[in-house]
Amino acid sequence: IGGVKIARDDVVRESDPTNNVPDNIFSKIGLQLHRKDNHPIGILKNAIYDYFDTNYPSKFVKFDDLCPIVSVQQICSLQNFDEVLVPADHVSRSYNDTYYVNADTVLRCHTSAHQAELLREGHSHFLVTGDVYRRDSIDSTHYPVFHQMEGVRVFSPDEWKDSGTDATSYAAMDLKICLEGLARHLFGAVEMRWVDTYFPFTDPSFELEIYFQENWMEVLGCGVTEQDILTRNGRKDSVAWAFGLGLERLAMVLFDIPDIRLFWSTDQRFTSQFSEGKLGVKFKPFSKFPPCYKDISFWISDSFTENNLCEVVRGVAGDLVEEVKLMDKFTNKKGMTSQCYRIAYRSMERSLTDEEINQLQWNVREAVQSKLHVTLR
Ligand code: PHE
Fold first, then answer.
1. Pocket probe mutation, ligand 1, options 83, 201, 229, max atoms within 8 Å of Cβ
2. What is the ipTM of this complex?
3. Which of 120, 140, 207, 341 has CA 20 to 30 A from 230's CA?
């Protein structure tokens, strides 16, 4: 963190059964793409900073170096879930969705994990940028590590009491104006719409969508902070708003980056295309290498999940795997279920040889069989 790499052995006791963080995920901790001014993620972060600095001069305090794991600072499941009111039975708490370092410590799955501690420290306007971790399926827009920016603004009673509206409406209105301005700052004159949604930590909750390349694209989630969060953290009489946005998703659109794995590339042909302060320079692919598809079929067990499969495939093939897609599924008379997945292998940087791919697929088959309790067909 802050340039210091953390090794798995520093934080995980050997063979702790409550740990599900593989080495390839640990190795991402501390890379901090969002703190590199010449990287698309850092460039986007700085562009958002500019918007807040211009419109709210010296108001928002910026954090971009809060540690994603507990043993170095204090991101535990308490902060990631309990402090932002995530219900006890919410799927995001499961081992299938979240990386647990041990039974009560996680790699944060959102920057909302820092809301409560920063409110407690007395901050009223803040932005938190950081790497977040989620177990998920594999395709061109999903990667188990990505970056988010959180924004929180707290209003004291005297700010809305003369407004003629109640505190919640006042905050919701201010939130929408702020974020519409941000979207225009990043995307220019775009069509936008607000969609009602649910988050455990805000009410009402909204998503902002923009019309981009003939599609409505979700840009961020936000809402008026649950009063409980304010009350518990010393802000009983205040009202607040919060938003969280995924930097990769926006950067892919702004810079024309076709695959999320590219953000991790250290290939000069990628990194040299971006420079500090230049938002929206279009990425020129250095040539498109062909994908290679391999199928794998197996009888699943009750404990099988797609996220677990993707983790195993990623563990073997790393960033050479582009997509893992369910192609076929059926249940036979005996009640056994078979699934067929198609794995797309492709390097962003070079052509892969047949030999290399066959070896990868062989290793994937071995690993799937030994780690997932399935029967290969
Ligand atoms: N934490 C939410 C997510 O990761 C985003 C969010 C942040 C929504 C703040 C509302 C308020 O999806």
1. 201
2. 0.98
3. 207
